[in-house]
Amino acid sequence: MLMRACLLGLGLLVMTAAQGSEGELDTTHLTKLGMKVESVRATEVSGLYEIITSEGLFYVSADGTLLVSGRMFDITGDEVVNKTEQNMAAMRRSDLAKIEDSMIVYKAPQQKHEVTIFTDTTCGYCQQFHARIDDYLDLGISVRYVAFPRNGMQGTGGRQLQAVWCAADKKAALTAAKAEEDIALTTCSNPVEEHFLLGRKFGVRGTPAIITENGELIAGAMPPRALLEEIEKRAASQPQ
Question: Which segment of the chain is annotated as a signal peptide (predicted)?
Fold first, then answer.
């Protein structure tokens, strides 16, 4: 009864898909949807492939006509393993490594952990988080900011975030914007849109969104001590 309830709650989909190899995957319909396929991997389910796209991680039949959005779980061991989230975490780690140079980084003096925060200057919880940035740093949590304008590039947050990343002193501009002080809305070539699209790919739906060192996503703000405990709990649960 418990297993049946879990399956219903997870909304699992069982399907029979066409057979095929990675090289034979037809991406015609995916392309029509505006999805750029970045990688393809055969899953443990015959005829079902995992694809990493510009819109995130999905599953697709070999003939490219059936697209599945959801979670795949390995239930063979003592504990249920979320295979989808594992692979999403690996994707996040890989993609974030490519944009490290465009982050605004606050380094903890005695670093124990490092988190990446998708942030918006107009987000109240982001403002509260930043107001306590020293408390996070004192606990050994380094913070790497990337931009996520919740209302798009042309909204107030989008314009402010671009100005922050164009400022000579990015940290000062970020702090001023989050304190709701006026900043010069300068423009330049900046990474804000790239950050925004990456956040959507990662499954970010609001701010702040926290990515741990392991690539796991924590939605929403957490007080400094609670965040430290959550990071260490998640790190301890990782397979050795």
Answer: 1-20
Residue 126 among the catalytic residues: yes
Give the whole-angstrom CA distance, residue 192 versus residue 167: 13
Q: Residue 122 pLDDT more than 50?
A: yes
Of 63, 120, 134, 166, which one is the catalytic site residue? 120
φ/ψ of residue 60, rounded to 5: -145, 145
Burial of 52 per CB tally in 10 Å (0-12, 13-18, 19+)? buried
Domains identified in the chain and CATH numbers: 2-85 (3.10.450.70), 97-236 (3.40.30.10)
Q: Is 166 part of the annotated catalytic residue set?
A: no
Options 123, 135, 166, 225, the catalytic residue: 123
Residue 188 annotated among the catalytic residues of the structure? no
Mean pLDDT of the chain: 89
Which listed residue (41, 150, 188, 234) is catalytic? 150
